[in-house]
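Box 3.1. Reading complex inputs
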Amino acid sequence: MNVLREVLWPLVAVIAAFVVGGIIILLIGDDPILTFRLLVGNSFGSAKDLGWTLHYATPLIFTGLAVALAFRCGLLNIGAEGQLYVAAFATAWVGIKFGGTVVSVFGKDENWSWTSLPWYVLVPLCVFTAISVGAIWGAIPGILKAKFGSHEVINTIMLNFIGIALVSYFTQYYYKIPGDPIMQTAPIGEAAHIPQLNQFLPFIPKDVPLNVAFLLAILMCVLVYIFLWKTKWGYELRAVGENASAAEYGGIDPKKQIIIAMTISGGLAGMVAIGEVLGNRHNYYDGFSAEWGFWGIAVALLGRNHPLGVFIAAIFFGVLMRGQIFVDAFTVKVSKDLGEVLQAIIILFVACLQMYTMQRRIKGKV
Amino acid sequence: MSGILTFALIWSAIRLSTPLIFAALGGLFSERSGVINIALEGLMLAGAFTGAVATYELHNPFIGMGIGMLAGVLLAFVYAIACIKFQADQVVAGMAINFLMAGLPALISGAVYDSSGSTPQIDITHQLPAMNYFIPVGVLSNISFASFLAFLLVPICWYVMYKTPFGLRIRAAGENPEAADAAGVRVIALRYGAVLISGALAAAGGAYLSIGQSSLFTRNMTAGRGFIALAALILAKWRPVPVMIACLFFGFTEALAIQMQGVLKMPSGEDVPVQFIQIIPYVLTIIVLAGFIGLSRAPKALGIPYRKES
């Protein structure tokens, strides 16, 4: 019965969102049935479709876990976007500086790296960078909330703007190859690349960038589950989310838990950089994220803040992320913004249904 | 340095604080009644987009601004249903409204104007005029009609909030809804009203951005101003006159930052990069919140849905 309820309400929210989305499509003068067929009909039919869907789902698993873990502590981390941005740039920076990157500046080779580490040192170093830089950017609003009581929602939004502007500055002034028309850093060294799954699984086409970060994402679902429900730390974190004053009475320091939760959450968001920088694009570029940080909120809410739910919800939103490209290309009027609109409506419906689902609430006044 | 503090800077500060004042005063009504309004950003975007479309189509900025405000009311009604009727988590529902307004304008303008997220340029003669349009005095050309309206709203809001029964009831609903209910105040209806007012005001601020400060709507053109307005509201301890001062403070620093561009130099002798100028309001918001939030006291029932005992 309990399991049924956990599955039923998210499903109701999704169906309701599609109904409202359908009405919007009708109003702007297009065919909702055709649009929805394009949106969800290109996701699982072939190895290529499935590969792309899972590839789109990978960053959403990380950000979904990030938001869900913070949620469990009564915090809303809207800052996953900024956290993954700074992590992605830092990861690319390490990949350039320690990866032996040599760039061609107007025909002349320049060595931009300090050293050239072997892959078995460089990859762990890059992964460590992604996690720790994301964690630091996440810890800041945690500390601000614990020390001053300022709400994490406003602070994380401000830190998104700040983080994205800062990495854009470093990219533009220091790590862009002169003459490159695109705002992107130099490529990371090849030793920092992580394998794409098509290297082991020949049935996945070569152009599908699905990489080992997807397997890492599955592992993180398991680890987050163990952390939250099988360890003392996870218990304390959830206790603060359930009832901060009761937890405090029981000897748990809510302030400490807030900082811990935001730090881990930021680290999880930072892991997006592993799949995208090391496994896919092999550099950092302006407009790096397809708003994965924000989609993570919908993923967490729809997944009921549970790692298994997050995984399923991330696949669902991966379908939408792939589908909106087809919608953009093959409908007359509907643009890829449909995905974002559906995502927002789903969040709204999940929030409205929470009085039936006993969803935990965000703490604090704004 | 003396060349920096000029009248131009003051006009610029007034211009930049105008949308903040509208939004923060809107937030004041909603939050004083007990409903968190983190949706200000989305409500502003609704006003900015609808205002731009209506002005472009009807060639009249006043009607455009009115329709923009109407869109804000409509969206605020959706938000109010979620927060009051369904007792949704107000922060989550508010963010949903913000996300919706990040995507919906782009979806609509993509279908109607075949663009990716922006509306067509509005002719300069159809934009919100400066005050010398009404009173032909030269100096008034520096003050937009919207700025005039925003600053006029400050004493009006103060009067409504502190000198009318409506204001008293709003404050009661936000402080102690049970007692207010027992005294015959219709808490639920009041909260609906307060949230709708916040929608109209925030949307007016958004409309000023698209049809006054610039000449078209662009995607996410509010750039966090809804949240900065919220920070100003907290800094002002939810009171109208301090709200104006807090918004002027944010507007002034932004104006100063813009003016400093090209004047301030990096240690290396180069101009301060644009990114550093851009982040100033955001850094300031974080600092102000951290420094002042402990001193301010939110309405007691803020964020708590009201359940009428039957």
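In summary: Chain A has one domain: 2-357.
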